[in-house]
Specification:
The complex is a heterodimer of chains A (112) and B (115).
Chain A lengths: L3 E4 L2 E4 L5 E7 L5 E8 L3 E10 L2 E4 L7 E6 L2 E6 L8 E9 L2 E6 L3 E5 L1
Parallel strand pairs in A: 2-11
Antiparallel strand pairs in A: 1-3, 3-8, 4-5, 4-9, 5-6, 7-8, 9-10, 9-11
Chain B lengths: L2 E3 L4 E5 L4 E3 L2 E3 L5 E7 L5 E7 L5 E3 L5 E5 L4 E6 L8 E8 L9 E2 L3 E6 L1
Parallel strand pairs in B: 2-12
Antiparallel strand pairs in B: 1-4, 3-9, 5-6, 5-10, 7-8, 8-9, 10-11, 10-12
Classes of the chains: A mainly beta (112), B mainly beta (115).
């Protein structure tokens, strides 16, 4: 158990509204990631963080922003949600120089 | 750019039969390779990983995988499948450069087990 908690686990929202997903970890790991999972696409990296206030883009970052003001929290924000952002979002952590990812339980977002 | 291909979208096997799930990767150097399993509504759990050394790696739940550099493959095997193995399986590749773990995942193979 990597001590990762995602919230909310389920959310339904309307097009154009802002949405923030939270990832919380209890073990002070440096690296945190946000992936989205869609049928036929597997998991794709949105953004990742390598420390407080240190973030970088992944493969599918358009329309998403992230923030990390504390080691334990990594926030994913959709400034203006679109239907194409309906997906399951997974947070993950990795331990320094150990390349495996440990995943949270996921947040299912539906944008109507 | 790194990529992963899982050519089988869906596989059905009988309980007790052997299983092989295929994974082909593209990476310019020696990769890190992983297999994850996902049960419905759950997150992903690591089955096994290859970093270096012995090309046959053992994982949890009786799974193993073999790294074949010449074929750019990392196929997952299990000699006797149990009904509880029904899930979706993802192969992933990452690189040795840098310290972040920016894994690239395949599109997954859904395993159905018939009794």
């Amino acid at each position: 158990d990597a001590g990762i908690t995602q919230s909310p686990r389920h959310k339904v929202t309307e097009t154009g509204t802002p949405v923030t997903l939270r990832c919380h970890q209890t073990e002070n790991h440096r690296y945190m990631y946000w992936y989205r999972q869609d049928p036929g696409h597997g998991l794709r990296l949105i953004h990742y963080s390598y420390g407080v206030k240190d973030t970088d883009k992944g493969e599918v970052s358009d329309g998403y922003s992230v923030s990390r003001s504390k080691t334990e929290d990594f926030l994913l924000t959709l400034e203006s949600a679109t239907s194409s952002q309906t997906s399951v979002y997974f947070c993950a952590i990795s331990i320094y120089q150990n390349k495996e990812l440990f995943f949270g339980e996921g947040s299912r977002l539906t944008v109507l | 750019a790194q990529s992963v291909t899982q050519p089988d979208i869906h596989i059905t096997v009988s309980e007790g039969a052997s299983l092989e799930l295929r994974c082909n990767y593209s990476y310019g150097a020696t990769p890190y390779l992983f297999w994850y399993v996902q049960s419905p509504g759950q997150g992903l759990q690591l089955l096994l990983k290859y970093f270096s050394g012995d090309t046959l790696v053992q994982g949890i739940k009786g799974f193993e995988a073999e790294f074949k550099r010449s074929q750019s493959s990392f196929n997952l095997r299990k000699p006797s499948v149990h009904w509880s193995d029904a899930a979706e399986y993802f192969c992933a590749v990452g690189g040795h450069t840098g310290t972040a773990s920016k894994l690239t995942f395949g599109t997954g193979t859904r395993l159905q087990v018939t009794l």
